[in-house]
Amino acid sequence: MPVTIKDVEYIANLARLEFKEEEKEKFTEQFNRILEYIDKLNELDTTDVEPLYHVIDLKNVFREDIVKESYPREEILKNAPSRTEFFFKVPKVIQVEKPQKENEDKEQS
Amino acid sequence: MFADKYEAVIGLEIHAQLLTNSKAFCGCSTKFGLPPNSNVCPICLGMPGTLPVLNKRVVEFAIKLGLATHCKIRTYSIFARKNYFYPDLPKGYQISQYEEPICYDGYVEIELKNGEKKKIRLRRIHMEEDAGKSIHDQDVDTLIDINRCGVPLLEIVTEPDINTPQEAALYLTKIRQLVQYLDICDGNMEEGSLRCDANVSVRLKGEKKLGTKTEVKNMNSIKNVEKALEYEINRQIQILESGGTVIQETLLWDAGAGVVRPMRSKEEAHDYRYFPEPDLVPVVVPEEWINEIKKSLPELPEEKRDRFMKQYKLPKYDAEVLTSSKALADYYEQCVKYIDDYKSVSNWIMVEVLKILNERQIDIADFKVKPEHLAMLINLVNEGKINQTTAKMVLEEISETGEEPDSLIERKGLLQISDESFIEEVVVKVLEGNKENVERYFAGKDKLFGYFVGEVMKLTKGKANPKIVNEVLKRKLEEMRVKVNG
Ligand SMILES: [Zn+2]
């Protein structure tokens, strides 16, 4: 099924990107070309092939559970476009009717 | 009122924060309550060019929980990226597991009120990292603390096998007990180290198709999970009964108001675009390691309960209460090293100790009475040196001071009086001072016997041995009756 301009808009929105109309058209065409190319792979019969999750045939190396020193806070906050003394500062994420910081805190993960 | 027509179908997702020293993919400390943004490095801050390295203990903890919940363990498992934008997730994705989670197809058994056992199947347990904290209660901006970012979590997902809020509470209690026994998570729901989300739908009884589900979040205690589910099930039934349709949405439980509220959606669709994490190679777990972990598993709650019943000849109820937490079970076992009366220790812990813990809202770990001191106290009662009432008072006091019971008893002169001649003197005094009552007693007012006992105890400041008081009083009254009648 070919990619439409709607799909491009959807993906752009998920990626928080904004495009002009002509760019959207260009991406629609490019997306389709890439997918056509990838489709070629479907010509192969992979019924008995294990899925490959990583391109290099390596196995994991673990780290022991040992605490290392973190970075000084000043270093961590140095590149932040907006900050307080201790925190990163971002535009208000959620309209809250009353203070309920715990609420939003846990909706993650 | 329509509840009988409907059946609820509930699936739970639990997040357990792991008790590792360092984060999942970097060496930053996982310590709770440190100043904001002080446990942060370029890896957990998601700086470009950094690479995650997996903490071995995270895998070990996942396998432990998997084995304890009868899961199959994958010897080859992979990480995935879950993509979404939120300021407390600086990388723009969470490292999680999607396909091939480390544990799958397990179950936990719960015991319902009627004694029936029910298996709650586990679909999967997977490893992932926590996000940071957003602080919204500022006037203008949202503040971000990255300390929690990268702290390891296990996500435990059930099949939709749960049908009532009570079953959900039992299941959650069981998981909390397990992670505490395994020492992989502190299980504290109030502080958020154990979090629970629920998928809830209702359908007519007998119907095979599932109804539209909602997701309920923000329930930070087992009680709240029960209440929130109760509320949500009723809400859905009410909608259906009035001819409406349930909308699939995410709801937040507002414990204060006792209602669920729709969460303002931050993304139109939950489209996380999972894909295998290219920065981490597959996790290969050798069979020998799994076997090693299996051998190192501690005694689990049910095994401990059964052993308590056998070894200490305790009723099932006692064994269950005592093994409800590992710390309490350990306390019991420390006590019985010093005393053979296993049942009395059980009674004292279940009634008096738990009462004190409850009143002061503290854990057994913070209980000041050492196990050997509780044993000593019970021994003193058994030997008749102090009576129950005094012992309870002593326990109350030493649980605040940590003093040894015998020194307190001596200091306050609380030893029980078992000297019969002394008790006899007091009894005679009481009876002579209550001539009218004695006559009424002889006339048939049996209840006055208790009054006489009370008077004797008053005069001896509660220290007289009640058994001896009873005997002496009976004998003296009998002698007087013979005199009066004779
Ligand atoms: Zn770090």
TrEMBL record, chain A:
Catalytic activity as recorded in UniProt: L-glutamyl-tRNA(Gln) + L-glutamine + ATP + H2O = L-glutaminyl-tRNA(Gln) + L-glutamate + ADP + phosphate + H(+); L-aspartyl-tRNA(Asn) + L-glutamine + ATP + H2O = L-asparaginyl-tRNA(Asn) + L-glutamate + ADP + phosphate + 2 H(+)
Annotated GO MF terms: ATP binding; glutaminyl-tRNA synthase (glutamine-hydrolyzing) activity; transferase activity
One Pfam family this sequence matches: GatC
Keywords, in A-Z order: ATP-binding, Ligase, Nucleotide-binding, Protein biosynthesis, Transferase
Enzyme Commission code(s) on record: 6.3.5.-
Gene Ontology terms describing biological process: glutaminyl-tRNAGln biosynthesis via transamidation; regulation of translational fidelity; translation
SUPFAM superfamilies recorded: Glu-tRNAGln amidotransferase C subunit
Quaternary state and interactors: Heterotrimer of A, B and C subunits.
Family of the protein in this entry: Belongs to the GatC family.
Function per UniProt: Allows the formation of correctly charged Asn-tRNA(Asn) or Gln-tRNA(Gln) through the transamidation of misacylated Asp-tRNA(Asn) or Glu-tRNA(Gln) in organisms which lack either or both of asparaginyl-tRNA or glutaminyl-tRNA synthetases. The reaction takes place in the presence of glutamine and ATP through an activated phospho-Asp-tRNA(Asn) or phospho-Glu-tRNA(Gln).
Alphabetized NCBIfam families for the sequence: gatC
Entry protein name: Aspartyl/glutamyl-tRNA(Asn/Gln) amidotransferase subunit C
Gene: gatC
UniProtKB/TrEMBL annotation, chain B:
Domain Asn/Gln amidotransferase: 330-477
Role noted for this protein: Allows the formation of correctly charged Asn-tRNA(Asn) or Gln-tRNA(Gln) through the transamidation of misacylated Asp-tRNA(Asn) or Glu-tRNA(Gln) in organisms which lack either or both of asparaginyl-tRNA or glutaminyl-tRNA synthetases. The reaction takes place in the presence of glutamine and ATP through an activated phospho-Asp-tRNA(Asn) or phospho-Glu-tRNA(Gln).
GO molecular function: asparaginyl-tRNA synthase (glutamine-hydrolyzing) activity; ATP binding; glutaminyl-tRNA synthase (glutamine-hydrolyzing) activity; transferase activity
Name by which UniProt lists this protein: Aspartyl/glutamyl-tRNA(Asn/Gln) amidotransferase subunit B
Subunit structure: Heterotrimer of A, B and C subunits.
Source organism of this protein record: Candidatus Kryptonium thompsonii
NCBIfam families cross-referenced by the UniProt entry: gatB, PRK05477.1-2, PRK05477.1-4, PRK05477.1-5
Catalytically driven reaction(s): L-glutamyl-tRNA(Gln) + L-glutamine + ATP + H2O = L-glutaminyl-tRNA(Gln) + L-glutamate + ADP + phosphate + H(+); L-aspartyl-tRNA(Asn) + L-glutamine + ATP + H2O = L-asparaginyl-tRNA(Asn) + L-glutamate + ADP + phosphate + 2 H(+)
InterPro entries per the UniProt record, alphabetical: Asn/Gln-tRNA_amidoTrfase_suB/E, Asn/Gln-tRNA_Trfase_suB/E_cat, Asn/Gln_amidotransferase, Asn/Gln_tRNA_amidoTrase-B-like, GatB, GatB_C_1, GatB_Yqey_C_2, Gln-tRNA_amidoTrfase_suB_CS
EC number: 6.3.5.-
